[in-house]
Amino acid sequence: MTARFKYAKDPAESLPLTFVFSPDLSTGETLTAILSVTVTVLVGTDPSPGSILAGGNALDPTNTQASIPVTGGLNEVDYDVSVKASTSLGKILVCAGILSVRTQ
Asked: Among the residues of the chain, which ranges form H helices?
């Protein structure tokens, strides 16, 4: 698994989270698909953490990063967002990040 990224947003914001897979890719290897995105709660309470996913997940033009749009979220909740992707060499990689939602 690649390094864990840290993100922060206000509950009113909608924005993309960028997950960088390049440290785990071999020379010439690229991402071929985003297989899944999962969200769990690390701190706080949210009965439906997956509701922060806004849809429209995409790979960047270099196929080394995944863009995951998020929206909403509950104040004072930290979410673990995990992205699973396949590569051109047949590997399955996971990149994760912590999204802290705080009212500004």
From this structure: none
